[in-house]
Write a structure and sequence with these properties.
Blueprint (H helix, E strand, L loop, with lengths): L6 H4 L3 H7 L6 H7 L6 H29 L3 H23 L1 H29 L4 H8 L4 H15 L4 H11 L3 H16 L3 H55 L6 H25 L7
Helix pairs in contact: 2-4, 3-6, 4-5, 6-7, 6-8, 6-11, 7-8, 8-9, 9-10, 10-11, 11-12
């Protein structure tokens, strides 16, 4: 989250941030997983300060709009919405690291099989695991970023096993954690890393294929829902409204149809985002 609150004012929110920390129990893990090097208390204080800043601005804008058009109800509405805006905005900002960590995790899993396949080819040809990780720290997105951090830890004096364990601790991806644990077990037992990497790559590719097949199956009810709500119901509904207006005095005008079009546009945007969120992150081979 971009810091928009001055450090001079941020310190006043730290006591409240400590009390609000239980509302975001996984904040430390989420910040690590989102690659955000921020102190949890400072982040929560920043989220609270931004929520108050934006909440007061929104409430004041609504109240001022009510004053301009001389509507007391809208002025009171602006003041009344402040206690609602602020908590919702705080939770939105406070849970941004969790959302970002999931995004990072999905991008990591998308590229991980290909990075491991690169390492498998190099280890099979006699190159050490460390050199294979150095070469895999390019061209594979988030997977390369994580291998680069592992390489940096090893260069800083950590053992390979300790660097891999630290990598597991800061990544929430189950696929990645499972792969690293198997590599650690192979290193500790002296087993052949080639067999371990080969098994990991085959398993991950197969899992991605299953995810794509499941996604294809899940699309069928979504397509049916889309046809019903975005095509059939609006067409029949408009037709029925026009017919009914011949018998009953319905307030049909140009704004009614504009409202229907606006509602359909919002529904389609929501539907597309829903389908996109369900799509598995699989890199084209």
């Amino acid at each position: 989250m971009d810091t928009t609150v001055s450090e001079k004012y941020l310190k006043y929110f730290l006591p409240a941030a400590e009390k609000l920390k239980p509302a975001v129990p996984s904040i430390e893990k989420d910040l690590r997983g989102a690659r955000m090097d921020e102190d949890p208390d400072t982040y929560i204080a920043n989220a609270l300060a931004r929520a108050l800043q934006i909440g007061v601005s929104l409430a004041a804008s609504i109240g001022f709009a009510g004053y301009i058009i001389d509507q007391v109800f809208i002025m009171k509405l602006g003041i009344g919405l402040l206690p609602l805006f602020t908590p919702l905005l705080f939770l939105t900002f406070a849970y941004q690291p969790k959302v970002k960590a999931k995004r990072v995790s999905r991008q990591l899993e998308k590229n991980l099989p290909y990075a491991l396949r690169h390492m498998l080819i190099e280890v099979s040809s006699g190159i050490s695991l460390y050199e294979a990780m150095v070469d895999a720290s390019y061209d594979y997105g988030e997977a390369s970023s994580e291998f680069n951090r592992i390489v940096s830890d090893i260069q800083g004096g950590k053992s390979q096993i300790k660097a891999l364990e630290d990598s597991i601790a800061r990544n929430p991806s189950i696929m990645y954690r499972r792969a690293m644990w198997q590599m650690i077990n192979a290193l500790k037992s002296g087993a052949d890393l080639t067999d371990t990497l080969d098994s990991l790559v085959d398993t991950m590719v197969e899992e991605q294929k299953l995810e794509v097949e499941k996604y294809g199956e899940d699309l069928n009810p979504f397509i049916l829902m889309y046809l019903m709500l975005a095509v059939i119901f609006p067409s029949l509904g408009v037709t029925l409204m026009i017919v009914m207006s011949s018998f009953v005095e319905l307030p049909l005008n140009q704004m009614t149809f504009y409202g229907i079009l606006g509602g359909l546009a919002l529904f389609q945007a929501f539907f597309l985002n829903l389908v996109k969120s369900k799509r598995p992150e699989v890199k084209a081979a």
